[in-house]
């Protein structure tokens, strides 16, 4: 696992120890950023099921100004902090140990909105439609922002969720990437 492109291209990233997280493969990560970027001029990203922090770190490396990382696993939080330090991105990041729903409620109170929201929940615990609804209903996404969902290919997400519509969907083996924007 590594940073694919941008300022920190080629830097290796640590994976979360154990089998509780499923890291995004480099191939899928590169495809995601080719679909939404590939480079950015500022903006704020939310890496909601951050795991090792690979998606948020990749976004910062490619020009996102700041990223907020959320995961409920203690080992994941430690790994994210180590990876941020290794990339010298501590000043561009906030890291929180929390579950997704509580994290979203806390972010609503901060009145923050994101340019990019990465949703990569464990395949067995996916609640993506509900989370997308919360993000859109409470305007946690910028008007032209994108929600990038990584999910099992066996899961078919609806074309429309609340205020959002599926802009694009691509499948890579057992993984599908679905991108939502405001209607």
TrEMBL record:
Organism superkingdom: Bacteria
Protein keywords: Methyltransferase, Transferase
* Statement: the UniProt record of this protein carries the keyword ATP-binding: no
Q: Where is this region: Disordered?
A: 1-25
Q: Which NCBIfam families match?
A: 16S rRNA (guanine(966)-N(2))-methyltransferase RsmD (TIGR00095)
Tell whether Methyltransferase is among the UniProt keywords: yes
Q: What is this protein called?
A: 16S rRNA (Guanine(966)-N(2))-methyltransferase RsmD
Q: What is the lineage of its organism?
A: Bacteria, Bacillati, Bacillota, Bacilli, Bacillales
Q: Which gene encodes it?
A: rsmD
């Amino acid at each position: 696992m590594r940073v694919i492109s941008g300022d920190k291209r080629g830097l290796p990233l640590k994976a979360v120890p154990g089998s509780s997280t499923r890291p995004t493969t480099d191939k899928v990560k590169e495809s995601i950023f080719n679909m939404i970027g590939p480079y950015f001029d500022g903006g704020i990203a939310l890496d909601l099921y951050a795991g090792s922090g690979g998606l948020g770190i990749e976004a910062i490396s490619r020009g996102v100004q700041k990223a907020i990382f959320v995961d409920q696993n203690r080992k994941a939080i430690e790994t994210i902090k180590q990876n941020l330090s290794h990339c010298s991105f501590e000043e561009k990041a906030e890291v929180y140990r929390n579950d997704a729903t509580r994290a979203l409620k806390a972010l609503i109170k901060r009145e923050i909105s994101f340019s990019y929201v990465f949703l990569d929940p464990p395949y067995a615990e996916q609640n993506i439609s509900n989370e997308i609804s919360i993000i859109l209903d409470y305007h946690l996404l910028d008007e032209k922002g994108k929600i990038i969902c990584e999910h099992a290919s066996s899961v078919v997400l609806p074309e429309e969720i609340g205020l959002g519509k599926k802009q694009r969907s691509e499948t890579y083996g057992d993984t599908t990437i679905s991108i939502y924007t405001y209607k």
